C-alpha cells in the first residue's frame, strides 16, 4: 500500500461533529493523506480523520459516505468495500451521508475518482475493525486471536465452535488498540463477498416509493420559496426594476435584488431579482410580472453561430504550440498524400433531471444548508465568503442529487439561498426552474478543432497536427483567459495514443462570453470527437478497414508519457506508474469492440442511404472504452440500430453500477451527439426547456450491450469515460452507411432523427 | 377546495389555477411527484387522475375536484406493486429523480395493457425523460412486471 494512512479509534464527540449522528460501540476513523492539502497544514491531529466505520451494540454497522450520490451508486460502492473487509452482513449496514467538512479531504464528487481514491483506505478500515473484533473475542474467550475468525457479522472460534455477534463485541473491541497497517490481513479477491459482486443499491427502495429526498424536496414550515429572474447576459446588472405588479400578487412576501458583481463569474450568483413567496407557484407566477431593464455588456454581441464560424476560420491559422515532436512541416512537405478536417461541437447544457435547488437557514454566526451539491466544501467556502462567516460555521447537509454531471459542483445556487435567507431572517429554498437551468448553466464549451495528417510513401501516417480552440473553463475563475488550458488538452488530446513520429499540438485563441464549466467527461467530448473521427477519416482515406488501420496507428504496446518541456501531463491527478497510458489495454478494447461490429458493411454511398457500423476507442479518467454503433439512414432520416460498449475500468468494485454507468453514458452521449446544442443570440441563451434542448427519449434509445473486461488493475474512472467515444462512433457509422462525413455536431443539423 | 389524494380527502386553500404539482409538493408535502420542466415535456410529475396518467404540472387544482388522484406514494400500500418490485430487481434507478414519473406512466400502461410489446412501451413511456439513461432497464422491468402479473392471474 503506497498511502501512509492512519486508522484511529475515535471518541463520540468527534464522530457526532462529522456526521451529525450519535455513536456507540466501536468507531474507527481513517485519515487519508492522499487528499492532504486542505487540512494537513493546520496540523490538527484530532481533526484529520475523514472516513468512518462504526459497529454499534445493536449489531448494525454505520459507514459514512462522504461523497455525493447522483446516480453513480457511490453510497453503495464505497460502503460495499468496507463491509466486505469487515465481514459485515450488507443487510445490517446503514450508510450515513457525511456533512461537508474539510477533514474528509476532498469531497468534490467529480472527475470519476470516488472509488479509485478511497478504495485502499476503505479496505484497510474494514480490515482494522474486523481485526479488533476478532481480538476482542479472543480476549473474552481467552484463546489465541489466530483461532478467531470474523464471518458473516460474527466472530467464530473454530476449535470450540463458539460465536459472538459483532454487536456483542462492539464495546470490548473499542478498547483494543488499533492494529498497525502492516499487520492487517486483507482478503484475496477470491474471498470477496461484496467487492466485484452485485449488492442491493442502498437508495433504490426509497426511490421506487417516492421517499428519496432530493434538494428540491426540502421543506420547513417557516420557509419561503424563492424564484429568481437572472441577468440573461453575462456581467449584466439591473438598470431599472418595476416590481409593482409582482408585489400585488397574493402570497408574495418580498422581492429582493441580488448583485452579481464583476467578472470573473466564479461561483457567485448572477445578478437577479428574487421573488419570495409562500409557495413555488406564486413565486413563478409573480416573476412573470417583473419588468427589468438590464445593462449592456461586452458579451451582448455574442452569437454562438457567428462565434463558431469565426473559430472555423481562425483554426486554420497557426496557433500556439504546446507540444512538438519530430518535424511536422518536413513530414507534410515530404508526404505523398495529405488529409485535413475541422470538427465543431456546440455549447452544451447539463440539464440534470432535477433542476438545482438549495435551502438555507442563517443566523448571526451560523448557516445551515440543505442541497443537492456535488462539492459540500466548496459550498462552505463560497457561502462563508458571501456571508462573512468562516467555512466551519457553514453546515452543509447533502441530499440526494437528481443528476449532477458537473453542474451541481458549482454552488452559485446555494449562495443565492444563503444571501436570501440572511435577508429574510428565515429559511429560504431557492428553486430553479428548467428554464433557469437551461439559460444559466455553466456550459460545456463550444469548440472547433482542426487536424492535418500526411502519409509517407508507404502509406503510413508520418505527420499529425492537432489544433484546438474553445473558451476555457479557466475563464470562469480568472479574467483574461483566451486559450484552452493545458489541463483541458490532457483530457484526450495531449494523450492521443497514435505512434506518429512527427506530431504537434497547438491551441488557438477563443474568448469566453458565458460561464464555462465541466460537463460529464469535460473536453474529452470534443477531443475524442476530433481524434476518433479524424483517425476514421484516415482509415477510409487509405482504404483500410478502420479497426486494422487503428491498430497500426496506435502501434506497438507501450506506455506513453505525453509530457514535453514545460508541458506536464496531468493524468487525472494520478501517477503514470500506477495508471499508465497503456496502448496494450487500448488495443485490447479496440479488438473486442471490433468483434461486435460488421466493419465491412457499406451503405449505398451514391444515394446516401444504407446501413453501416462505426467504432471509436478512447482512454479517459484512466479507463479505456470502446463503442460500436450500427446506424441506418433512409431518405435523410437516421436511426441508431444498436450500440455496444466494451470497457476496461480496472477492477470493477460494483459491476452492476459500472454497467449502468456505461448504459447511461451511451444515452448521454447519444443525446449530445444527435441533438445537443445550446445557442446564444445577443449574448443570451435562446433555448429554454426540453422542447428546444431535447434529450434522447425511450423510443430513440436502441438496444445496448455492455461488456466490462475482467481486470486486476487498480479501479479507474467509471462515471464519465463511457461518454467520449459515443459521438464519433455514430458519425463514423454514418460515414460507413452513406459516405457522408459529419464534422459538425449535433447530427440533427444534417439528418432527421427518427 | 377538496381533493382526494391516495384515497383520502384533503382540504386545500389555494388559487384554483395552481397546478396539482405544487399542490402536492408544497401544500400536501407529497414530494414523490417531481418537478422536472413545468411544461409537460419530461413526465417527472406524472400522477394518475382517475387512473389515467396525467402531468401534474399542467393540471390546475380545480380540474381534480371530484376525481381520484394517485401519486407514487399511493401506487401501492407497501411499496410492492409488481413494477416497484421489478424496478428493484433490475436495479433501474440511477439518480432516481425521474423514477416516480416513470413508474406512474408504466403502471398506467400495465393497467390497460397486460402484456405490452416494445412499441407499446415506447408509446406509453416516450413522454418520460431520463437524463441518467435508464431506458433499457425500464423496458426490461416493465416486461418482468407484466409477466409476473400475468403469472399471478393464471
Ligand atoms: S414537470 Fe410535468 S412534465 Fe415535466
Ligand atoms: S434516474 Fe436520473 S433521471 Fe432517470
From TrEMBL, chain A:
Superkingdom classification of source: Bacteria
InterPro entries xrefs: Ald_Oxase/Xan_DH_a/b, AldOxase/xan_DH_MoCoBD1, AldOxase/xan_DH_MoCoBD2, AldOxase/xan_DH_Mopterin-bd_sf, N-heterocyclic_Hydroxylase, OxRdtase_Mopterin-bd_su_IorB, TAT_signal, TAT_signal_bac_arc
Domain Aldehyde oxidase/xanthine dehydrogenase a/b hammerhead: 209-298
Signal peptide (from-to): 1-40
Gene3D superfamilies: Aldehyde oxidase/xanthine dehydrogenase, a/b hammerhead, Aldehyde oxidase/xanthine dehydrogenase, molybdopterin binding domain
Keywords in alphabetical order: Signal
Keyword Ligase appears in the UniProt entry: no
Pfam families xref list: MoCoBD_1, MoCoBD_2
Signal recorded as keyword: yes
The name this protein goes by in its record: Molybdopterin cofactor-binding domain-containing protein
Originating organism: Microbulbifer halophilus
Organism lineage: Bacteria, Pseudomonadati, Pseudomonadota, Gammaproteobacteria, Cellvibrionales
TrEMBL record, chain B:
A Pfam family hit: Fer2_2
Location of the 2Fe-2S ferredoxin-type domain: 1-75
SUPFAM superfamilies registered for this protein in UniProt: 2Fe-2S ferredoxin-like, CO dehydrogenase ISP C-domain like
InterPro entries: 2Fe-2S-bd, 2Fe-2S-bd_dom_sf, 2Fe-2S_ferredoxin-like_sf, 2Fe-2S_ferredoxin-type, 2Fe2S_fd_BS, Beta-grasp_dom_sf, Diverse_Oxidoreductases
PROSITE patterns: 2FE2S_FER_1, 2FE2S_FER_2
Keyword Nucleotidyltransferase part of the UniProt annotation: no
Keywords: 2Fe-2S, Iron, Iron-sulfur, Metal-binding, Oxidoreductase
UniProt cross-references to PANTHER family, sorted A to Z: BLR6218 PROTEIN, OXIDOREDUCTASE WITH IRON-SULFUR SUBUNIT
Protein name as it appears in the record: (2Fe-2S)-binding protein
Lineage of producing organism: Bacteria, Pseudomonadati, Pseudomonadota, Gammaproteobacteria, Cellvibrionales
